[in-house]
Amino acid sequence: MIVKMKKNKGFLLAVFAVFLYGNLFSQNNQAASGSSSDFWDKVDFGGGLGINFGNGYFVGSISPGAVYNFNDYVASGVGLSYTYLKDGDFSANMYGGSVILLINPIQEIQLSAELEGIQVDAKWDYDEVIKDSFFQESLFLGVGFRTGKVTVGARYNVLYDSNDINIYGSAWMPFVRVYF
Q1: What percent of the chain is modeled with pLDDT above 70?
Q2: pLDDT for residue 35
Q3: Which of 161, 104, 111, 120 has its CA nearest to residue 138?
Q4: Under 8 Å between Cβ of 45 and 179
Q5: Is residue 4 part of a domain?
Q6: Which sign, positive or negative, has the C-alpha torsion 168, 146, 96, 161?
Q7: Domain with 13 in it: what CATH number?
Q8: Which residues form the domain of 118?
Q9: Using CA atoms, how far apart are residues 42 and 64, in angstroms rounded to an integer?
Q10: If phi over 0 gives left and psi between -120 and 50 gives alpha, with beta otherwise, what is residue 56?
Q11: Which of 12-26, 97-111, 128-142 comes out lowest in average pLDDT?
Q12: Using alpha carbons only, what angle is made at residue 38 by residues 116 and 30, rounded to the nearest 5 degrees?
């Protein structure tokens, strides 16, 4: 069974416009300053690694990512993610990717927009095996406090609908973001 999520093209178009504006603005600033810095000097890598387990329960996840710093105020990048969940007779493999835009209006504050797509392949192994597969789209808008390479904050999934099948329990999520 494939569940189709409602798409809000207005939000996706707005995120694309902000992403495009950030790219154009940063390239104009770089060209005007005459900077010819090496591409890889402006790339930061990061990601997440998680494990959670208990009585008959296990979750393991890995999510590497990279961002390109256009200037001190704008960065954007991509990420990949994989999560395995096992809870008794239920198991799921979740994998996908994301595109993120980071804006730092001042050094301590970071605004973010992240478009994420996750494929979920779930299986219930009762008397008979039941399988389900669906694609989850999320658009997170977030704000965080930044110190050095670490940002701590909260993000809101504007595409979240509690009436649809959803891999997230709430539209609100805390985050810790680290890029080296």
Answers
A1: 79
A2: 53
A3: 161
A4: yes
A5: no
A6: positive
A7: 2.40.160
A8: 9-33+49-178
A9: 17
A10: left
A11: 12-26
A12: 80
Question: Which tokens is 7 given?
Answer: 């798409």
Residue 150 contacts residue 175 (beta carbons within 8 Å): no
C-alpha of 9 from chain center: 18
User: What pLDDT digit, counting tens, does each position of 84-132 carry?
Assistant: 999 999 999 999 999 999 999 999 999 999 999 999 999 999 888 999 9
Residue 17, SS3 per DSSP: helix
Residue 31 and residue 68: Cα distance in Å, rounded?
16
Read off the amino acid at residue 54: G
- Tell me, what's the pLDDT at 127? 83
Q: What is the pTM of this model?
A: 0.76
Question: What integer is the mean pLDDT of 11-25?
Answer: 48
Residue for token pair 């979750």:
59
* 136: in domain: yes
- Is residue 3 situated within a structural domain? no
Could you give the number of structural domains in the chain?
1
Question: Is 145 exposed, middle or buried, given 0-12, 13-18 or 19+ CB atoms closer than 10 A?
Answer: exposed
In which band, very low, low, confident or very high, does the pLDDT at 72 lie, cut at 50, 70 and 90?
Answer: very high
On whether the CB atoms of residues 75 and 90 are closer than 8 A, the answer is: no
Q: Are 47 and 79 in contact (CB under 8 A)?
A: yes
